[in-house]
Amino acid sequence: MFDIQEELKKLPDKPGVYLMKDDSDTIIYVGKAINLKNRVRQYFQSSRNHSPKVQKMVPQIKEFEYIVTDSELEALILECNLIKKHRPKYNVLLKDDKNYPYIKITIQEDFPRVFLTRKLTKDKAKYFGPYTDTGAVRETLDLIHKVWPIRSCNRVLPRDIGKERPCLNYHIGQCKAPCAGFISTQEYHAVIEEILEFLGGKYEPILEQLQEKMEKEAQELNFEQAAEIRDQIQNVQRLAQKQKMIHASMEDQDIIAFARAHDEALVQVFFIRGGKLIGREHFLLDGVDEMTRGEVMNSFVKQFYSGTPFIPKEIILQEEIDEANIIQAWLSDKRGQKVYIRVPRKGEKSKLVELAAKNAILTLEQFGEKIKREQKRTQGALEEIQHALGLSQEIYRIEAFDISNTQGFESVGSMVVFEGGKPKRNDYRKFKIKFVTGPNDYASMEEVLRRRFIRALEERKELEEKGFEMEFGKFSNLPDLILIDGGKGQVNIAEQVLANLDLSIPICGMVKDDRHRTRGLMYENKEIRLPMGTEGMKLVTRIQDEAHRFAIEYHRKLRSKQQIQSILDEIPGIGPVRRKALLQHFGSVNKIREATMEELKKVDRMNEKAAESVYHFFR
Predict the structure, then answer these.
(1) Which of 293-307, 417-431, 548-562 has the lowest mean pLDDT?
(2) pLDDT confidence of 26, banded at 50, 70, 90?
(3) Of 39, 69, 139, 211, which has the maximum CB count within 10 A?
(4) 100-128: b (≥16 Cβ within 10 Å) or e
(5) What span, in angstroms and rounded, lies between the C-alpha atoms of 190 and 185?
(6) Which CATH superfamily hosts domain 397-560?
(7) Domain 570-617 adopts which CATH fold?
């Protein structure tokens, strides 16, 4: 029996994080403290000075845990990680979980590449963003590859120079073929410098260059090429117009303001990069009633910057926050350079905050009903499922598993993840069945689940050994509910796997009717019928369809690859090396089939005898 008063006496005079739990051992609040002894004791003293939210929470606390850290900064980092993982009932929660796209230039390489990424790492590459419009990023990248002849392959250069022939991009003028040694490192980096200037907002030089090129093509009566360049000019101009110059300092800044209504706050963030407004985004905070404006802002800043990889030099806030100094130190450490948190009262920055605040009010008014409908579709659906299953713990993360095969051929498993009622595609995983022969869905499901949760336990052990200082890994986040595509047999297999690993997670089978439509859930050997047309039933159906789609898609990909290889394997004298050379040269089996004898002889590693073998095989 946990004696709160006795445990309070054991609290250390050290910084750390505390976790409050209810009678079902669910974490209902996570907080940090400079002094654990003083902070945790305050909850169990006179309630007159407590906020209404704390007054509601304290009677539900049946137990607490704490983790001692070396500093307040470590406690802040751990607090952010634990809130993100456990999503406690009485913490302010950031509903949105957006992964923004960036443009990455691998300037640390001899022959840099330019591509889209959603993950920033400390690898000396140059990143531009974050951008709020993925379509605009892809449009920009497409334009870059059309205007500048840079590589888009993943070959390791200069190690692989001369090992293979230039690809199609070289022949259509979109790459200078550094893989073949046709351009020097110095020449290539000069091209990259132009791209860096372009992404930095210097559009005039490229517009002048394109204008000259277009006029030259027109004079030579190459009207098709001139029209293509004209379209490129229009694309550049459109991109230039999207990025509005709003600050002469040319610095990276985030402007943050919010509007609130009842239990929710809508936070508006303006992203300024290089002095230009490149986008804005709104976020919804839940559970903000009875909180001061400073507390709302403080909670948002901590949760938002614990999840976003890019930290700007300056963060401009609408409200003062109590933990400004420690948060500033934390973000400076993450960025690797000094970060400033400011709350302006006058001047240009103050006007930017006012603009963000007005947008927050307008967005809340404009999307208020839409947000409520979306909440009913997602959070409301989760609550329906929780109630139908009789679960005491709230459902946030759901993982669904499915098996796909064709008479045992290339069996694969899929894991799809929904958080807050929405798909979290970055956490989707594919499993190629390794240890099961033939069409055995039960054994295949057992293998997939065993591999998934053994990896989870391994990652969590590593986390604990490192004192939670590292980010949660790909598998360490455990679900609140597991859904299996199947009935009682599949569920029993899943329950056995978790029991063997000493894990306790609710498991349901997704049952279909005779017309192959989702009918209900199999839970604890009973079929739970969710009424048709309810948001809970719609969510289960979406999850089941998504798990099935993801498994089928992976299976088709493997099967197609296997079929191509099996056809070429039947050709006498064609081994793995020549098969690879043929596919790289022609791109498909159909083109190999249509190739002439002379064309086949030109393929790398093909002699006359091998070419004849391929030619006659298809005729």
Answers:
(1) 548-562
(2) confident
(3) 69
(4) bbbbbbbeebebbbbeeeeebeeeebbbb
(5) 9
(6) UvrC, RNAse H endonuclease domain (3.30.420.340)
(7) DNA polymerase; domain 1 (1.10.150)
Nearest CA-CA partner of 97 in 108, 105, 85, 107 = 85
Q: Are 374 and 416 in contact (CB under 8 A)?
A: no
Structure-block tokens of residue 51: 């906020």
pLDDT of residue 468: 47
CA distances from 22 to 41, 54, 61, 88, 321 (A): 17, 14, 5, 11, 29
Whether residue 445 contacts residue 439, with contact meaning beta carbons closer than 8 Å, is answered with no
The residue behind tokens 């093909």 is 606
CA distance 212 to 228: 13
Beta strands 314-317 and 340-342 are parallel
CATH superfamily to which 4-91 belongs: GIY-YIG endonuclease (3.40.1440.10)
Q: Which of 503, 505, 479, 509 is nearest to 491 (CA)?
A: 509
Q: What is the pTM of this model?
A: 0.55
pLDDT tens readout for residues 592-603: 888 888 888 888
pLDDT tens digits along 487-528: 888 999 999 999 999 999 999 999 887 777 788 899 998 999
**Tokens describing residue 1:** 């029996």
The architecture (CATH level 2) of 253-368 comes to: 2-Layer Sandwich (3.30)
Beta bridge partners of 264: 261, 286
Q: How far apart are CA 111 and CA 113, in angstroms?
A: 7
Q: Kindly report which listed range (1-5, 39-43, 505-509) carries the lowest average pLDDT score.
A: 1-5
Comparing 310 with 68, the larger pLDDT belongs to 68
